[in-house]
Amino acid sequence: MTVHVDSASSDSDDGNYIISVKGAPDIILLFCSTILLEGEVKPINDFHLECFRRDVQDFLLKGHTVIGYCDMEMPKSNFPSNFEFREDSIPLKGLRFLGMISIHDPVRPSSVEAVRNFRNAGIKVSEAEFLNLTTL
User: Fold this and answer.
1) Sign of the CA dihedral 94, 95, 99, 105?
2) pTM for the structure as a whole
3) What CA dihedral angle connects 116, 122, 123 and 127, to 10 degrees?
4) Which of 44, 63, 125, 134 is the most buried (most CB within 10 A)?
């Protein structure tokens, strides 16, 4: 997970910070209570969750990497001017789910030979997949 903070306005104390978060979709969704659909913010409901599960599973079964995105605007006045934004210093709840990006990154032909060489040397090779569909 990565957290980004941008100022929605100039250096003045007025306006909002925009907290943007990206990461594994199943984790990102845990932070969200709303979803952006066709330009409107709506509460996340069971229908949205089912569509989300289906789409993520479809992408993963095709061998894609999936990244989820969400954000939240927070008034600058809620933070001292020297506030240090870190993953553990901002509330990660009530965010707005923006969507997902699916990246097709197929296995390179040279990887097959490399895996074969590792196995022949007695090294166990496995692919790591960090998205846990059971948490959706």
Assistant:
1) negative
2) 0.71
3) 50
4) 44
